[in-house]
Write a structure and sequence with these properties.
By secondary structure, the protein is α+β, with helices and mostly antiparallel strands. The chain has four domains: 99 residues, conserved putative lor/sdh protein from methanococcus maripaludis s2 fold; 82 residues, Elongation Factor Tu (Ef-tu), domain 3, CATH 2.40.30.170; 58 residues, Beta Barrel (OB fold (Dihydrolipoamide Acetyltransferase, E2P)), CATH 2.40.50.100; 124 residues. The protein is built from four helices and 24 strands. The strands form five sheets. A six-stranded mixed beta sheet has the order 1-24-20-19-23-2, with no helix packed on it. A six-stranded antiparallel β-barrel has the order 4-13-16-15-14-17. The protein has a four-stranded antiparallel beta sheet with strand order 3-18-22-21, with no helix packed on it. The chain is rod-shaped, with a radius of gyration of 53 Å.
Length: 416
Amino acid sequence: MDRPIEKKRWTLKKIITIIAIAVFIFFLLYLVLLRDKSSRLYIPVNQVSITLVTKDNFQEFIPVDGVVLPRNTIYIDAVQGGVVEKIFVEDGSRLKKGDPILKLSNTSLELSYMDQETRIYDAINNLQNSKISLEESKYYRQKEIVQLEYDIDKTKTDFRRSQELYSESLISTKEFEDARRDYELNLKQLELSLRLKILDSIANASRAIQIDNSVERMHNNLQLLKDNIENLTIKAPADGILSSFNSEVGQTKSPGGHLGQIDMEDGFKLQATIDERYISRVYKGQEAEFDLDKVNYRLHINKIYTNVSQGSFLVDLLFDGDYPASVKRGQTIQLKLEFSNPTESVIIKRGGFFQETGGNWIYVVDPSGKFAAKRQIRLGRQNSYYYEVLEGLDPGEKVITSSYDGFGDKDKLVFR
C-alpha cells in the first residue's frame, strides 16, 4: 500500500540559499551605508615622526644671533692727514689715556704752521706796541695839564700884581688887560685839557680791552696751530684695548680717516640682528637669555636702531648681571628674545607638517596605533620648539609632525 511522503519545509538547500541571500543583502547595505568611504594611504610607520600632545609651560620667543662687543667704544680718527712715520703699539695693546699710538708726517702742514706762527707773533708785537702808545699818550696829556697848571699859577700871580698896580695907576690899561687875558686863556686851556683827558681815558680803556682781546685770540690761534701739529701724533683718548688698528709705516692717512678704536674695559654688550617683521613687537627693556657653560644669563634691550637694512634691524642688549668671563669680542651667541611670559598651554613640537597644512589640520594617531586620521585644529603662538594648540587636540593624543609631502590630501594614513 502506497504511503504519502511528507515534503520537508526547511531543506538544507533552502537554508543555504536563504543565508546566501541574507549575506548578499548585508553586503549591499555595507557597501551603501556602512563602508568607510574616506580616502587612505598605506605607509610604513617608521617613515613618519609621531609625537605626543602635552600640556606644559609655553613661552613665545624667537632665536637671534648676538655678536659680543665692548659696552663702550671710542673711535680714533686722523684729525690731520699725513704719512705714517712711526708706529708705537700693535693691535690688541692695552693702553692708558695719552699713550702714543702712531705719528704722522705732514710737511706742508708744518711749513704752514711756521709761516702762520711768524705772522701771529708779528701781529701780537704790533698790538702790544699800540698798547704802549696808548700809555704814552696818557702821560703826554698829563704832562700838558701839569704845564698848564704851572702857567696858570704864573699868570694868576702876574694878573693879581697887575691888578694892584693898575688900581694905583702905575701901569697902563693895556698891560692890565693883557695880564687878565693870559690868565683866563690858561684857565680855559686847562678846562679843555681836563675834558680831553677824560675822553682819552675812556677811549684808551676801550682800545686797551680790544687790544687785549685781540692778543688773547691770537694766542688761542697759535695754540690751535700747535694742537694741529700735535695731532699728527695720535694718542689714546682713554684707557682701554686698541682694536681694529691696521697701519703700516709709509701709509697715507687722509683727514678724518678711521685709524682704530679703544674698547673700554667696563663690560660687554651683545648686538643682535632681528627680522623686520618683529620691529613693532620689539621694545626697550625687552628681556632675552642664553645658556653658556650650564649657566643662564639674562639680558635686556638697551638700544634699538630703527634703520632697517636688507630686511633686518639692530638692537643692543646689556647684561642684567655679570657677563661670562669666557666671552671674547666678536663671538656670536644665540639668544632667545622673549615676547611673552611662560603660561600653561597645550603644545606640540614643531615639524614639517606646518608647511603643508598651514597649521589648519593634522594627522592624529588612533588609540589602536594602526592608522592616523586627519583632524581640523587651530594653532596660536609659536617658538623655536613648539606650537601652541588652541583647538582640536587634547593632552595625551599622538600626532604626526613630520613632513606631509607625498601624502596628498588623504583622509587617513594606514600604518603597515
